[in-house]
Design a protein that fits this description.
Helix content is 48%, strand content 5%. The chain is mainly alpha-helical and 196 residues long. It folds into 2 domains: 1-50 and 168-196, no CATH class; 51-162, no CATH class. A 3-stranded parallel sheet has the order 2-1-3. Helix 2 runs antiparallel to helix 4 and helix 5 (106-132) packs across helix 6 (140-150). The longest helix is centred in the middle third of the chain and has 27 residues, at 106-132. The protein is globular and about 50 Å long.
């Protein structure tokens, strides 16, 4: 079941998730911020940021096929970036690890994430900070790096969240954009993760 909201006001997720405490896997929509406050009742919702949303700007800057389509339709092409290609490669390595643990026990997922994903995320953070130091603040890559770095605390700890996926790939790919800010269950159990 999905909740539909006519607009993107923050009151909607607060209403939809009023009785929920647990993990919320979502994009960086500001309307969720009130859900993450420590003083929230019945408890703060723990953010598990989405790697698909984090990867998107790099994917655009590294997408040769998309550039060809843009050029064919008379739109300005986006210069391909070797840094963006590297970022897509690194984030895709995290997706590959997630595919390898799909269907395994919670304990096994945590173990694999801590052993394999966590070091990749730590290396990725170092790489982003190194690249960011070379860029102007307004550069598209800088904006994409800052999007991730601002949320590093909500991405990296996913290695200890057995039930949260690193990326809700099937949900992001299979739903219209308007649904990406919806909740799947009408009354989620108190501790189940929710991916938006």
């Amino acid at each position: 079941m999905f909740y539909y909201s006519r607009d993107r006001r923050g009151e909607h997720p607060q209403t939809h998730l009023a009785g929920y405490a647990g993990i919320l896997q979502a994009d960086a929509y500001d309307g969720y911020n009130q859900l993450y406050l420590a003083e929230r009742q019945p408890g703060a919702i723990r953010e598990a940021a989405c790697w698909v949303h984090a990867r998107r700007p790099f994917f655009v800057m590294a997408d040769i096929d998309e550039n060809a389509r843009r050029k064919a339709s008379g739109k300005k092409d986006i210069p391909l970036s070797p840094i963006a290609v590297e970022m897509v490669r690194r984030i895709d390595a995290l997706f590959e690890i997630e595919r390898s643990v799909n269907g395994r026990s919670a304990e096994e997922r945590v173990r694999v994430r801590q052993a394999l994903s966590q070091p990749l995320v730590e290396d990725l953070e170092v790489y982003m900070r190194e690249q960011l130091a070379k860029l102007s603040r307004g550069h598209d890559l800088a904006k994409a790096f800052n999007y991730i770095l601002k949320r590093c605390g909500s991405r990296a700890p996913a290695s200890d969240r057995a039930r949260a996926q690193q990326a809700p790939l099937h949900r992001v790919r299979s739903c219209p954009r308007a649904w990406c800010n919806s909740v799947e269950q009408s009354r989620p159990p108190a501790r189940s993760p929710i991916a938006l």
